TrEMBL record:
Residues 3-153 form the Flavodoxin-like domain. Pfam families: Flavodoxin_NdrI. It comes from the Bacteria. PROSITE patterns: FLAVODOXIN_LIKE. This is Putative NrdI-like protein. It comes from Streptococcus sinensis. InterPro entries: Flavodoxin/NO_synth, Flavoprotein-like_sf, RNR_NrdI. GO terms for molecular function: FMN binding; oxidoreductase activity, acting on NAD(P)H. The lineage of its organism: Bacteria, Bacillati, Bacillota, Bacilli, Lactobacillales.
Length: 153
């Protein structure tokens, strides 16, 4: 079985989480195939977007322009390539949902980008984690993936 994880990481936090999540999944399900697609790499290398062949989960941090995230400062910056990838072809219909990350110190802006994507594309915010995430966050997201992909021990 193939699990696809689409993400963007700018500071390294999301990439760290996806890498540790992948390690955790493979440790518990050795026959699993995990496909990791880093949108930043696609854009940097000038590769065109493509339609996903199977369902996937998106991981994305929150980067917003100033303000408080409620009545101002909720304009997404730096992660818009992920939205373009999801909007490409039929990708939005193949996305199980989004896992958001951020810094709880930013109060209402915490994981706001993930909430905006969920609303825009009509899928759920599956989970959230702060900064690089803790082992409990990894286990929680792994459980969600096992459920969505119907992975059995």
């Amino acid at each position: 079985m193939k699990v696809s994880l689409v993400y963007i990481s700018l500071s390294g936090n999301t990439e760290s989480f996806v890498r540790r999540l992948t390690d955790y999944l493979l440790e518990h399900h050795p026959s699993l195939e995990v496909e990791k697609i880093h949108i930043k790499d696609l854009v940097k290398e000038g590769q065109p977007f493509f339609e996903m062949q199977n369902q996937f989960i998106t991981f994305l941090p929150t980067y917003l322009e100033g303000g408080n995230g409620v009545d101002n400062g909720d304009v997404e910056i730096l992660t818009t390539d992920v939205a373009d990838f999801i909007a490409y072809g039929n990708n939005a219909s193949k996305c199980f949902g989004v896992v958001g990350s951020g810094n709880r110190n930013f109060n209402n802006q915490y994981c706001l980008t993930a909430k905006q994507y969920a609303k825009r594309f009509g899928f759920s915010v599956l989970a959230d984690f702060e900064m690089r995430g803790m082992l409990g966050d990894i286990k929680k997201v792994a459980g969600i993936i096992e459920h969505l992909y119907q992975i059995e021990d």
